[in-house]
Every structure is written in C-alpha cells, then in structure tokens.
Amino acid sequence: MSPFLVGGFVGALFGVGLLVVVVRLPFFRKPSVDERISPYLRDLGAPDVFVGVVDSRSPFYAILRLFGPSLRSAARRLERILGGASTIRRRMQRAGIDRTVEEFRIEQLLWGTIAFAAGLVISIVAVTFGLGNPVGLLVFCLILGVLGVLGRDTFLTTQVRRRERRLLAELPTVAELLALSVAAGEGPAAALDRVARSCRGDLAEELKRVLAETRAGDTLVRALDALADRTGLLALSRFADGLAVALERGTPLADVLRAQAGDIREAGRRELIESGARREVAMMVPVIFLVMPVTIAFAFYPGAVGIRLIAG
C-alpha cells in the first residue's frame, strides 16, 4: 500500500472529524424551539429515552446522555428517510415492546454505528497490512452501517414472530383455564383476573392489560376487541371475538372456550404437519446436491481410474 494513500485516508478521517466538530459549534447553528424552551421545562420531568434501557452505572450511559440530542436529531432524519412510522409502531405493539418510534430509530442508529465501527476496525487492519483499497474499504464500512440499520428492523420482525409463537402456544391452556373458572361459577372478569394472576407469559400480560382497561372505565367487550387488534393473530382474534359475542348474546361461555381451545390445538397440529412436510422437502436439497454427487463420485471414480490405467 502506497504511503500517499494511507496518508490520504487518515487525513480524510481527520478532516471529517474536524468538520463535525466545527459544524456543531454553538455559533454555527441556530438553536431550535425545543432547545430554547427546554431549560424552562426541566421540572416537568420529561421522559428520557435512555431511562430503563441502559444502566446508569454503565459507561455507555454517560456516552448516550452526552450524545442524546445528536442521536435524537439523527433519528428524526432517519425517520424522514425511511418513513413507515405507523408500521414500526404496529410491529412494536405486536412484539410487546413499549417504546416510541424515536427510540427504535435511535436503536437502529446505534446498531448501524456499531457495524460501521466494526468495519472501520477491519479496514484499518487491512490498510495496515497493505490489503485492499481505502476507497473500497470505506464503501465496505458504509455498507456494514446500512446493514446494521436494516438488521435492527429485521430483528424486530423476528421478535414479532417469536412473540406470536409464544401467544399461540399459551392460548389453548389459557382458554381451558378460563373455561374451568367460568364453569366453577365465576364471572368473565373474575375469571380473566384469576387466570392472569395464575399464569405467566405474554398472553397473561395481555389479559392484565385488558383488565386494566376495564378498570379504567372501558367495557370488557371493547377491551377484548382492542386485544384482537393489538396482537394481530387470527386465532387470538377469534378467541377475543368469541368471548365478546358470548358476553353480548349470553351464550354459555364455558362451552365456547372449550371449543376454541380444541380448534386452536387442531390448528397448531395442522401447522406442525405442514411445517414437517415443508422441512421434508427442504431436506431433499442437500441430499440431491451434496450427498448424491459424492456417492456417484465414489461409485464411478475407481472404475474410471481402472479404465484409464487399462487404456494407458
């Protein structure tokens, strides 16, 4: 690697850092309305993005508090670039994450920054040993940063799927426990309260939220409808709708709950069979493209060698 390229790469990094410092100087930027009125609103106890996310004893807490305004500004810019705030809010709701879209964008920025820093370390090592082009390595770092930002979004989708699987696994047991409580003579609200206090898991937390909404003045039917809209699962939507219809029309609730528990278990059994069939087809790919060619090579190679020796 030419020393001129190394010097240019280091000089470019120094110039970018100096530019960032100069741009952030107070007399080069106009303060926003939020920055001007925030000193007068400190006593109101505005929620901090990083409270509960990072331990205050951690060294990263001071870094996050120091760069908090910059992170919020960058998060707003990222939101304007990517958009989809309603979709992100809906997916976080389905994943059971009680955060705002701004906090999620800050997490995306942190993931992208960590990925960019990892790529930068790899690039510096590569430049030190004379491997690669500095421009290509810089592009590599930028690609890693973008992948880090998109990786947090992909991980959110994974969190949604995991929580939905947990909800589906807990739903038949919760339905049967509700049927037992109702058959024992308890009312719907009392049965929900007993099951929510007895069980552990995501569905129990959702039932506690339903009870909290009813205690706040909402009706049980509307709280169950909100549960169906919040989770987005078809089986849970049918469960909530069945409870709501039974409460409105006076249908025997225990029979409805037992029937729904059986339907959910049957749907889970069908999904398991379908998943097994798909995995069986997927297992044919390594057999056909890996095992079979190796078997054919072992079967025909000795004969080919023998024919070559005879012909020679």
UniProtKB/TrEMBL annotation:
GO CC, one annotated term: plasma membrane
Chief subcellular location: membrane
Membrane topology: Multi-pass membrane protein
Pfam families attached to this UniProt entry: T2SSF
Cell location: Cell membrane
Record domain Type II secretion system protein GspF: where: 176-298
Top-level taxon: Bacteria
Record keywords, A-Z: Cell membrane, Membrane, Transmembrane, Transmembrane helix
PANTHER family linked to this entry: INTEGRAL MEMBRANE PROTEIN-RELATED, PILUS ASSEMBLE PROTEIN
The protein's name: Tight adherence protein C
Native source organism of the sequence: Kribbella shirazensis
